[in-house]
C-alpha cells in the first residue's frame, strides 16, 4: 500500500509538470542557483575543517618533545586533550591538558542553516523549473517564498556574526595564549613553547560565504516581493489619484 500511495503521489505531481529551464536565466531562478551554490560552500568550509595545535615540551626525562591536540568541527575544544609527553608523565608532574571552550552551538547553527538552505533551494528550483505556472497562478507560493526569504536573510545575518565571534574565540583558545593557562607547564623543570596551529583561513572564508549568503538572500526578498500581489496592490494604491 505504501508503494501504491507513493506512486499515486508521484504520478499526480507529474501530471502538472511543465519543465522550463528558461527560468534559470531569469533573476529569480538565477539568484536561487547562486544561493544553492553559496550554501554548499558555507557548509563545506566550516563543517569540513580539521586542525591541530602543537606545543614543544621539555620536562623530567624529556627534551623538546612535540605534543599535539587535534580539533575539528563542531569545535568542542573542551574535549580535546594534550596527552603526556612521555609514558611516565614527566615524572608524575604532567596531567592531561584540555583546551578551553565549547563552540559547537555556534558552528552547528551556521552549518545547519546552510544545509536547510541547500535543501530549500533545491525544492524551490524544482518548483521554478517544473511548476512555474502553478507558482505564478497561486499567490500563496510567492508569499511563502517571500516569508522564507526574509527569514533566511535574517538567520544568515545572525548565524554569520555568531559564528564569526566563535571563530575569533577558537583562534584564541588554540593559539599561543594557551600556554599561561597550562598548570603542567608551571611544574619545576618543565618548559612549554607554542609551536604552531593549523591555518584557519578556510574558516575565515566560511564567514565571507555567510555574509555573501546574507546579502544574496536580502536581495532575493525584493525579487520575490515583485511576484506577490502585495507589490501589485502597492502599485495600484500609488497610481490611484
UniProtKB/TrEMBL annotation:
<dbReference type="InterPro" id="IPR001285">
    <property type="entry name" value="Synaptophysin/porin"/>
</dbReference>
<feature type="transmembrane region" description="Helical">
    <location>
        <begin position="109"/>
        <end position="131"/>
    </location>
</feature>
<dbReference type="GO" id="GO:0030672">
    <property type="term" value="C:synaptic vesicle membrane"/>
</dbReference>
<keyword id="KW-0812">Transmembrane</keyword>
<dbReference type="Pfam" id="PF01284">
    <property type="entry name" value="MARVEL"/>
</dbReference>
<feature type="transmembrane region" description="Helical">
    <location>
        <begin position="143"/>
        <end position="164"/>
    </location>
</feature>
<feature type="transmembrane region" description="Helical">
    <location>
        <begin position="202"/>
        <end position="225"/>
    </location>
</feature>
<feature type="domain" description="MARVEL">
    <location>
        <begin position="23"/>
        <end position="229"/>
    </location>
</feature>
<keyword id="KW-0325">Glycoprotein</keyword>
<keyword id="KW-1133">Transmembrane helix</keyword>
<keyword id="KW-0472">Membrane</keyword>
<dbReference type="InterPro" id="IPR008253">
    <property type="entry name" value="Marvel"/>
</dbReference>
<comment type="similarity">
    <text>Belongs to the synaptophysin/synaptobrevin family.</text>
</comment>
<protein>
    <submittedName>
        <fullName>SYPL1 protein</fullName>
    </submittedName>
</protein>
